[in-house]
Write the structure tokens for this entry.
Amino acid sequence: MPVVTSLSQIPPIAKPEFHKPEFHKAIAFQINKHWLALPPAAVLRVIHKATLTQGMGSAQLVYLGNQPMQVLDLRPVLSALSPPSPSPLSPSPLSPSSPSANLPSTAGQFFVIAASGKTLSAIAVDQPPVLVELPVAATHTVPIAYYKAIGGIASHVAVVPQLGTVFLLNLSSI
């Protein structure tokens, strides 16, 4: 082994190159024609609403086995927003004169069971969620006025070619 007599003889250590990912995986689901997403680590499971037991006299509390969880119905917040422009994968918009224009026939048929810390929540969604890749370059902070309009449920938004606008939910703010 060679003996080093000065620091100038030590070769420089190459700094590792860290590549920022181009995409982040997310679980996306639709509520009131709006796409929302959570990181996969936050989603524990997806179940049909028939699997849950409703709490006594409360539509805001359901049980999965012995585990109570709060129902998060984001429809009231999202119904105040104008519907997004249709994307190739979303169903065609309903006409305003249709009696079911405000609520799809599949509304709340599924629940995304999500965890924020030790708190479990059941988010009522229209259809089973999908795994998507969100482009990092197309992810932006929600403007403050819009953030307030959506009740602070999402602080970021991504534009996904297959889905259109996707709000990234912030469970700790809901």
